[in-house]
Each structure stands twice: as structure tokens, then as C-alpha cells.
Design goal:
Layout: H1 22-40, E1 45-50, H2 57-68, E2 74-80, H3 85-92, E3 96-101, H4 110-116, E4 127-131, E5 148-154, H5 161-164, H6 166-170, E6 174-178, H7 190-200, E7 205-208, H8 217-236
This protein binds guanosine-5'-triphosphate (GTP) and magnesium ion (MG).
Residues 51, 53-59, 86, 134, 178-179, 181-182, 210-212 line the site of guanosine-5'-triphosphate (GTP).
Organism: Sphingobacterium gobiense
InterPro entries: CobW/HypB/UreG_nucleotide-bd (IPR003495), Hyd_mat_HypB (IPR004392), P-loop_NTPase (IPR027417)
Protein name: Hydrogenase accessory protein HypB
Amino acid sequence: MSNPTTPKSNQMPVGSVQCDNTTLNLLKANDFVAKAIRERLKDVCVINVCSSPGSGKTTLMQETGKRLSSELNIAVLVGDPETERDAVRMREVGINALQIVTGGMCHIEAQMVLQALDHINLEGVDLLFIENVGNLLCPAAFDLGEDYRVTLLASTEGDDKPKKYPRMFLTSELMLVSKADLLPYVPFSIEAVTKDAREVNPNLEMISISTLNGDGIDAWCNWLKEKVAAKKAVSLA
Ligand SMILES: Nc1nc2c(ncn2[C@@H]2O[C@H](COP(=O)(O)OP(=O)(O)OP(=O)(O)O)[C@@H](O)[C@H]2O)c(=O)[nH]1
Ligand SMILES: [Mg+2]
């Protein structure tokens, strides 16, 4: 579970120095709102789902909803620069979903989540996914009050991404290598990507998944159930 005393905005790759700048001050304001979200969602396990555009976030949420809705009450906030298409896709499979249209912005900010919370019914919800805008850069800096950050990296994107976009992988608890069904057809090494990602973040967990043939989906669902149970145990303590 992410530690609220070390904001994601302040975590830097090993061997780099953090400079004081305007953006950093804005991020400190974002961290303040993220803290308010954590206070408000004490009983809900919140997962911030990040990736490049098209890596399979919405498809995975749909599949997860289908598999877990009999056990867990799931809701989704989904961010996109334009359109409500992803929220519509979630609702088509019976998931309680609300679209955050960022108006062209390349990430979700905590204040957008805080506003959205007033427009979605979270009564009895165990698990709230926040599908971030497709982007491996900006979303990394914005704490959304989540308990866990999960980053998808599709096999079609290349296995060099963790070192090129380190902050995303540094600030995530889990990396999902998605579209694993395509691994036989693309030059992508699970060993290489895991090695690079763990050099960036030694604590990063990894599961390889495919929504097409079901590989890794049980492991992913078990991971989620564990995290929901852990959050409930903390909130009841
Ligand atoms: N081969 C394969 N294709 C997949 C898999 N998961 C998703 N896709 C396809 O990848 C495309 C993008 O999937 P989405 O779920 O829309 O991706 P996304 O990350 O939500 O995209 P944005 O919200 O636009 O960032 C769709 O055509 C999916 O059918 C998978 O496991 N294997
Ligand atoms: Mg999507």
C-alpha cells in the first residue's frame, strides 16, 4: 500500500536530484487534495490504473468487472481528454462508471477526482478504479489519493519503456504486461522488461496478462482481492 507520508510527486529515480520549481509547488497542492481523498475513501480500495493510450486499461476493467462483480462491489472513474466512450463501455458490462473529461489535459488531477466523488454513488463500493488518461509521463506525478498504482505495458509497446519513463514504474506497485497473447509475434522480452523495471523499482510486482486468452487474469483478480481485504482490515482496525 502506498505510504501517504512519501508523496508520489516527491519520489525520484535513484541518482537524480530534485529541483524546486513552479510545477513542484503545484504538485504539493495536488498532494494536499490527494490526502483529503484518502481521508474520505477510508473504506474503499482505490487503484489508479495507468498506461500509454490503447494498452488495454478499459478492456481489463471490463473483464475484471465481469469476473469479480459477484464478489466485489466495483466502481470506476475514467479519465479521457474527450468523449465518454470508456464510461459507456464500462456501463455496458454493468459497472458503475463516471467519465472525467479532462478537456484536453494529459492526466487526471486529484481535484478532478474529488469533484467526481460528488457525482458517483460509492455506497457499499469495495474497489474503485481510476483509469488515468493514456500517458506514461504526466500521470506519474499526480497522486490521486490511491492506495495502489498499477501500470500496464503492452507487449506491442516495446520492452524498453521502464527505463525511458522511470517515474511511472517507480511510483507503481504493480506492472501488468498486457496483450501477452501477442508475445510470440513481437520482439518483447519479459525477462528484459522485468529486469529494467526492477532496477527502477526493486519492489515492483509483475503479472503478465491477456484479456483475449485469459492468461494472468486469475492472478490479477487474486491480487485485487488481497488488496481489498488489506484495506478493509486497516479501516476496521
Ligand atoms: N491482442 C490483445 N488486444 C487487446 C487486449 N486487451 C485489449 N486489447 C485491444 O487493445 C485496444 C485498446 O484497448 P483499450 O482497453 O481501449 O485500451 P485503453 O488503455 O483503455 O485505451 P485508452 O483509454 O485510449 O488509453 C482494443 O482494440 C482492445 O481490443 C489483449 O489482451 N490482447
Ligand atoms: Mg480506456
